[in-house]
Design a protein that fits this description.
33% of the residues lie in helices and 17% in strands. It is globular and about 75 Å long. The N terminus is likely disordered. The strands form 5 sheets. The protein has an 8-stranded parallel β-sheet with strand order 7-6-3-2-1-10-9-8. Strands 11-12-13-18 form a 4-stranded antiparallel β-sheet. It has 2 domains: 372 residues, Glycosidases (TIM Barrel, Alpha-Beta Barrel), CATH 3.20.20.80; 62 residues, Golgi alpha-mannosidase II (Immunoglobulin-like). α8 runs parallel beside α9 and α14 packs parallel to α15. The longest helix has 25 residues. By secondary structure, the chain is α/β, with parallel strands linked by helices.
């Protein structure tokens, strides 16, 4: 009896040891230091979009990992990694939009690295960036610095080298001739993404496989969620089925590259894009719209979305920079006030690689390029704005956001609004025009400008003025 009992105890001990070993594999010890992502963290977060290829001369995970600690200086709490997966060779794009295979000069052809979004394997990392061990070190370093990591996931299509094209052609959209197609518009014309093959979510097995491969990164590589590319082009019922399954694995953050309010429904995405807000900023900067139009936009936003829906505010990202122009090209002298507005508006502000270094050129999309690394005025502004976003609850922008109250002004170029939560207030006032303007207020405003620490006083009886694109941030702290 003693021998049998002892054997059973040993067997149970061994089983428990094996179980613990398996758990340790999923969540390595050194990565347990970070708090589980939750709404309180999202309320105060700044998100950083990392373009690994262009971030450094090396274009590697390791080069980016070295700089993660200093991202904390900017208030960054979430890193969004642009797709890190291998890129298809077949139909690989080159600068100008042509296929790399059409370039006769071999040296020039080798420069064509293709689009991150033409994925050939969702379970591996692009050797251009390093190894899976390098990636794991990136995640570990981010977590040690209190920063979460989300992967850019491409659910709508794959590159033409993806194994599914051979093993599971039924996963893809086909034309009347039974040929797999690139993504198409509703009228059947090509979207223009000839380097990728369109996935067909009518296929149940595709849905199962997609969930499986997303789950791998959560459970085996300890990432904290996903930014989902063109999420609105994937059937909403797929997200309704999938996101709860992913959340069952761990607490995660989900960002949709989309504007559709239904994607922010209960248990679905945590955040979507403030596309309309971005377009309003561009239009105001160009003089096509006035500051008064911003209030119209905000009222529509409050009508279209629930109070606790979160949107990502941005003045640039990888698409805007590469295809539509740099911040300066699009916004000119209005760049600084628009950056402040992105932080003051309810939601979460985005920093795109190079923005923090006053990047003044459009990054190449299909070739190697490099962002600058000289810290200037934007770096300092981002530090101050990031600290305010992190520390002042009047800028909370998640599930329990601070209020937003527009204050009418007698000049259509002046924007004035108040954010408030639990007695903490922030007042933002700015001149959204290229000329000095005068205006009257029906209340007195005074205090220190958060950005400059200079004393500020706006009269309720006399005329006030602000210079071209000048703004002030007043707090009651």
């Amino acid at each position: 009896m003693f021998t049998l009992k002892k054997s059973i105890i040993l067997l149970l001990g061994f089983t428990l040891f094996i179980s613990c070993q398996k758990q340790e594999k999923k969540v390595p010890k050194e990565e347990k230091e970070i708090t589980t992502i939750n709404n309180e963290i999202l309320e105060t977060s700044v998100i950083y979009e990392a373009n690994i290829r262009q971030y450094s001369k090396e274009g590697s995970f390791d080069a980016f990992t070295k700089d993660i600690p200093q991202l904390r200086e900017l208030g960054v709490k979430i890193i969004w990694l642009m797709p890190i997966f291998p890129i298809s060779e077949t139909k690989r794009k080159a600068t100008g939009g042509d296929f790399a295979s059409l370039i006769k000069d071999e040296a020039e052809r080798k420069k064509a690295l293709g689009s991150y979004y033409a994925v050939s394997d969702f379970t591996k990392v692009n050797p251009e960036f390093g190894t899976i061990e390098d990636f794991r070190e990136l995640v570990k370093t981010a977590h040690k610095n209190g920063i979460y990591v989300v992967l850019d996931w491409v659910p709508n299509h794959t590159g033409w080298d993806h194994v599914w094209l051979k093993t599971n052609p039924e996963f893809y959209t086909k034309n009347a001739d039974g040929e797999i197609t690139d993504p198409l518009n509703e009228d059947g014309t090509p979207v223009g993404w000839a380097d990728v093959a369109d996935l067909n979510y009518d296929n149940t097995d595709l849905r199962i496989e997609m969930v499986k491969e997303m789950t791998y990164w959560l459970t085996e590589e300890n990432i904290d969620g996903f930014r989902c590319d063109v999420a609105g082009s994937v059937p909403t019922d797929f997200w309704q089925e999938t996101i709860p399954k992913l959340r069952a694995q761990k607490d995660i953050f989900m960002l949709a590259e989309a504007w559709e309010p239904e994607l922010l429904g209960e248990g679905l995405f945590d955040m979507a894009y403030a596309w309309d807000g971005h377009h309003e900023m561009n239009a105001i900067a160009k003089g096509e719209k006035k500051a008064a139009d911003w209030d119209t936009y905000m009222q529509k936003r409050f009508t279209d979305y629930e109070a606790n829906d979160m949107l990502m505010n941005f003045i640039t990202n990888h698409d805007e920079n590469s295809w539509n122009g740099t911040v300066k090209e699009r916004m000119g002298d209005a760049s600084e006030i628009m950056l402040a507005l992105a932080y003051m508006t309810p939601g979460m502000p985005l920093i795109y690689s190079g923005q923090e270094y006053d990047m003044s050129h459009r990054l190449k999309f299909f070739e190697k390029d490099e962002i600058p690394k000289t810290k200037g005025k934007t770096w300092e502004n981002l530090k101050k704005l990031g600290a305010l976003k992190n520390d002042n609850i009047a800028l909370n922008g998640g599930g329990n956001p601070a209020t937003y109250k527009n204050i009418p002004v007698d000049n259509e170029n002046i924007m004035l609004f108040e954010r408030e939560k639990n007695g903490e207030k922030i007042i933002f006032i700015g001149n959204f025009s290229s000329e000095k303007v005068e205006f009257s207020l029906n209340q007195k405003l005074e205090g220190s400008d958060y950005m400059t620490n200079e004393k500020v006083r706006f009269s309720a009886t006399d005329k006030n003025s602000l210079g071209a694109w000048e703004y002030k941030i007043l707090t009651n702290q």
